[in-house]
Amino acid sequence: MKRKAQESVMMSLKKKRVRLENISQDVLTVRDVCGLIQYSTLRPTHNIMKPSWLSVSGDDGVSRVNVMILDGLTQTHFYRYFTHFKHLRNKYTARWSLAPSSGDLMSDLLNSDVTQSVEHLKISARLMLNPVIRRFGVKASGLSSFLLNEQDMIKHNFPVKGGRGCEGFVCTQSDGPVTDSSPLFGLDCEMCCTCAGLELTRVALVDSTGQCVLNELVKPHNPIIDYHTRFSGITSLMLNSVNTRLTDVQCQILQLLPPDGVLVGHSLENDLRALHLIHHHVIDTSLLYRKEFGQRFKLKHLAEVILKREIQSEDRTGHDPCEDALAALHLAQYFISKGPREIVQDHLEDLWEVEFCCDSDSNTPHSSSPLAFGHALYTSGKSALYLSTTTDDTHSLTNQHVCRRQHCTTNREVVCVFRRVVQSYTLSVLQFSHSEDLQQTPAQRQQHLQQMSVCLREMCVLYVGPWPSDTTEKQIHKLFRRCGRVRTVRFLHNTHGVHAELVFDHLEGAQLAVNHLTEHHISDCHIKARRPVHEWCLDLDERVSERQRDVLTHHMIYVCNLSSKHHHHDDLLHTFKQFGPIQHIIRPAKHAGKRHCRHAFITFERSESAHAAVGVALQMGNRKLLVCHALTPPHMISWTQAQAVVTETGQESTERREGCDPLQMERHIQKLDGKVGKVFGALEKNCMSIVILPGIRSASVDYLGLCFIQIKRDDTI
Fold first, then answer.
1. Helix (H, G, I), strand (E, B) or coil at 200
2. Residues 120, 138: contact at Cβ < 8 Å?
3. Adjacent-strand bridge partners of 185
4. DSSP single-letter state for residue 577
5. pLDDT digits over 653-664, tens only?
6. Which site in 300, 357, 368, 398 is 20 to 30 Å from 250, CA atoms measured?
7. How far is CA 365 from CA 46, 138, 177, 362, in A?
8. How far is 287 from 266, CA to CA, in rounded Å?
9. Domains, the chain, ranges and CATH?
10. Picking from 19-28, 162-171, 556-565, which range would have the lowest pLDDT averaged per residue?
């Protein structure tokens, strides 16, 4: 039974959030993952198509991408050792099956083609290397596209709540959402030097129409050492009769700024620190009109080149804060109205002193051209890091300009190095190797994978009986299909009575059969449904309980014993909407020879709704519905997929017949999972974390991998 994954994961309950959503995707490929990484890292500078299988939205966007590759692990490993993957199963709320790749993942990533539109190809290479284009891209538009986010504010020493040196600062009521029509206010301050450092002596605020709404002299609390009259224009005589203090102008600014008001200034962090003011919506013109290597244009030069206006004239003493605030406001309004591409095209020569030329032919047909991702990342001014314990060199990694590669001796060293440089790279790839104690030959690895698959299959196995002697497989199938699809029915011949082995497609079917069909009576026979008895199944109840708490399924239920007449979306919606809002209803695809499927998965918006629906007697038509917590994650087709080799279970325990010591494997997986948790904890806010279990491709059978995706929303996690 093939069921398409449709999982909508809310990353935050706040208004500003990032949303990940599965959209009818069976199995991802490495190419799909590469497309997501390309989109997340090159979106500002290249016209990259958004992946159709994943929707990423949010005001702040993704700042960096971190990829962790856990060599040698598959989807089978994850669900066989589910208990030991505490970080992976709890921190990552989006999970997809991944087709195994026969090549090197890092090489596939850096050498994957980036498809660019003709519009992008027509842009001069010199234009694309401009720091403004590298920061904002060619399509950014609207006021909200140029606001500084929290990371940028911290990086450029803006005062932020809880920041160093911001004790006692006043926060404005900037809690309103900023739109492209939000009002702009130009701000400029003049400071003098006191015995306590720089302190405010004058402040000016102009509104979006250019009218000066605040122009006040301010007397510092501490004795003035230097008035900086040459720049500030302030003299001791000017401040003699001034009684206005810092708190007074703070109150005036708080009254003048609406909740969605945006402050504009040039090197605005200095003005806000002088005002002891924290404001979340800011645009800094020194960071709009960017220079290379973090340098900044002077406001006087920008006004002269862009606005064709002279400010800060040498004919008068000191700067006029109203004039400077108005110039910053007009520079921001001009930038927003034109957009980054037109700004750079119009002023590449007179501002950045670079000769503009178009490298592409105007007659270029409307087609796309491939570009290697590694090269595109480098030319966009982005940096990439690859940390690995492997020593194999690949051609794609020999160029240190494309990606910095560092060899580490252990997985622990990989984590330590990454934590030191976590904020230095746009893309970081960490490859964790298999433990030396678990090195296996191909034959041993194949045996281990087969035995793990058998363990997962046996979770869906029941031994049922005794049956009347004339019972047929069709009768058994008809009785138990009310709990879910039965994959196989096999009579056992070495028992006193007639018994049968049933294999369900889903773990939920076996669970419901044990709960609802034990002690069923047929012709004076008391039918009992039993689990297999060996080490793996002794703690099956605990394993089932863990899967009920899985972040992918805790808000889902499994419904079966549906009739063909009432198995419609509207009927299910009408029956279950009483428990809470429903996100979607998943009905597995039809099987060969089966016109109707008798079960469905229902996903609620809240886990409380799923808990309420379980245990309530429900009926559709003349059928009593069987309902339980969903145990099968949306990306899985079945717990009992056919394996290349299926061995009979004997007296020897399944655990001991696995291709390696299970205790060693558990310890290895716990260590890897712990390293994933440490790396995730070191990531900054809005960083996209991708964890890949690559899967294994062999001559006889392919074992699927897994891809985990999470955008970190809290620095403290």
1. strand
2. yes
3. 263
4. G
5. 444 444 567 788
6. 300
7. 19, 20, 42, 9
8. 8
9. 8-118+374-438+663-711 (3.40.720), 142-338 (3.30.420.10), 454-539+641-658 (3.30.70.330), 554-629 (3.30.70.330)
10. 19-28
